[in-house]
Amino acid sequence: MALNLALKYPELVNAVVTICGAGYGSAVNRDYVDGYLAAARRKDLQPVAELLFAD
What we know:
- The protein is mainly α.
- It has one domain (2-50).
- It has helices spanning 2-8, 30-38, 46-50.
- The radius of gyration is 15 Å and the shape is elongated.
- The model has no long low-confidence stretch (mean pLDDT 85).
């Protein structure tokens, strides 16, 4: 829905950020989502953030 609004009213939208947006390609990485939601501190996010990058 957010992307549809951005396309329909581009003059009103500066940026659109999606987390686990659907329809962009591969399946949702549940390890990332679960790790992000379970993190209590910033240091807990380091291994989760590493899932966003590939060598």
